[in-house]
Amino acid sequence: MRTEEALAQFCAALLPPEHGGPEPAELAERVVRHLDHVPALTRYAVKAGATALALTGRLVLRQSIRDAPPEQRVALLDRLAYNDRVALALDGMKSLVLLAFGADTHAAEMVARSTATPPAHPDADLTVISSTWWPSHTHADAVVIGSGAGGAMAARRLAHAGLDVVVVEEGRRWTVDEFRTRHPHERYAELYRDGGTTIAIGSPAIVLPIGRGVGGTTLVNSGTCYRPPLSVQRRWRDEFGFDLADPPRLLTYLDEVEELLQVAPVPLETMGRNGQLLLEGAAKLGWSASPIPRNAPGCAGSCQCAIGCPRNAKYGVHLNALPDACRHGARILTDARALRIIHERRRARGVIARRPDGSSVTLRAPIIVVAAGATETPGLLRRSHLGEHPELGRNLSLHPALGVAGRFEERIVSWQGVLQSAAIDEFHRSNGILVEATATPPGMGSMILPGFGRNLLRQIEDADHLAVFGAMIADQPAGRVQSLGPHTLIRYDLDRGDGRRLFDAIRVMGRVMFAAGAVEVLSGVPGEPAARSQQQLEDQLARADIRKMHLAAFHPTGTARAGADPDRSPVAPDGTLRGVSGVWVADASVLPSCPEVNPQVSIMAVALSIADGIVNRG
Fold this sequence. Notes:
Blueprint: H1 3-14, H2 24-35, H3 40-61, H4 70-81, H5 84-115, E1 128-130, E2 137-139, E3 142-145, H6 149-160, E4 165-168, H7 176-181, H8 184-191, E5 199-201, E6 206-207, H9 230-240, H10 247-261, E7 264-265, H11 268-271, H12 273-285, E8 289-291, E9 293-294, H13 321-327, E10 331-334, E11 337-344, E12 347-354, E13 360-364, E14 367-370, H14 377-383, E15 401-407, E16 420-424, H15 428-431, E17 433-438, H16 453-461, E18 466-473, E19 479-484, E20 487-492, H17 496-516, E21 520-522, H18 534-543, E22 551-552, E23 583-585, H19 600-617
Parallel strand pairs: 1-10, 2-13, 3-4, 3-14, 4-10, 5-20, 6-22, 14-23
Antiparallel strand pairs: 5-6, 7-9, 8-16, 11-12, 12-13, 15-18, 15-21, 16-17, 17-18, 19-20
Helix pairs in contact: 1-2, 1-3, 2-5, 3-5, 6-13, 6-19, 10-19, 12-17, 17-18
């Protein structure tokens, strides 16, 4: 059976056209186009799941799913959802279909809002050269692998020092015109590694979206800019011997980062009703809450941070650090995946990168800065035969997160406002729980809506009355990154205590929702209806199994932990990779433990400090 036909049958059951759902074949076609951007194994899994569902439907219903009455289709999905093994695959297909449906439904509205006002900032002047046109052999003083938060800051500092710097980026450059006019679903599919389907395998599986393009994940993050708490800085210094985190020393770099990014709290008039409700609920409970500091001067609240800001208002590194580096001579090589680091006699000599057509580019340089991110850096080092340290790839923290939606009598339209706008820190220091008002572009947050068929369509239609909060916990390092040939396998088994704290986070969010006036709360617990009171929510959580929850994570750190103990830390306190000369690591991998807040500022400050060390060594 063709993939399109099998998916169309699933679409007909999930969102029956008889009850106002979309035409199944058209929706299935869009999902298939999304699958062009995901790994082959994921495509196969979706095709196999859809085909198995279609065949099961024919066996159970005695006819094609599409030919059966809508009630029978929904009953089939309800029945399958009670099978734990099938439910996971069903949820995965549901999320892909709802993503496509939500993006399609609101595409015209999003484009209209995107183009209603001119960009806050023009595209920056960058020296960007595609690998297609780059010579096969070149020389430089330094090669920086990765153009995200860490790589951009390191490149900026090295270029300022007069070094000839080449930044190697696997993705491509995006323009503000593309963010303003391209279909939201296409942007999502192309801006994320593996089309946004990266998963940390474990119990439960955790979705881990990772940006790819010039600017890295700063292209698609929320723009949230927290400094690492002093307690975290001291822990990194005292427990791990990571001297770069010494608070007086790190303070200088934190100040520099915030000045460069133009960090400021979200204005109340911009944040939107979603964030205002969080502040109102927290105030009624007497809890500490405030607008979030962000790097978004000129933000108009389009709520599209996660698929590229259509106004260039979110001040990612593609608009500040990278253009500054290019003004000082740096060049950015795009569409080039770093395959391995060249080294001779344990001294770095350069980098080999692969073009899209499979041919290679060789960049000779004595200084290599690895900033490929916590999930990709270990694999690159292993491919380079520099991954002998037993702790490399281990100690992975993710900041596990989940969301809660509250239904209000008033119209909220959570996607009109700042994507991540206000936060409650009442339980942050004591319990490691940070609650944030976090909306999403339409479709990206639809997994919180339970059920199938008419009920699901009714909830989607009423989504403008939902407020959406998210919570993340400061987790124990419970994961590892492994290599399967050229591919990365992420394994993460949620710590039992962290699982309990995630349920505590749902309780906290429920209390805030009800205090703000919600008539019911969608907890995200599979199989449970909306809770109409805090006690009902408590009862749901008492029956819940964390292994069946829908979790996401956004901040992988720690897989090349920096520290003084050579047995515990693959990277030395100054960022040098142990066992080789001329290689530094300057990304989220080196953070010794979970930073407990959104890590953008932490990564940038540490990368600047590491780059200063390179310059000072001469």
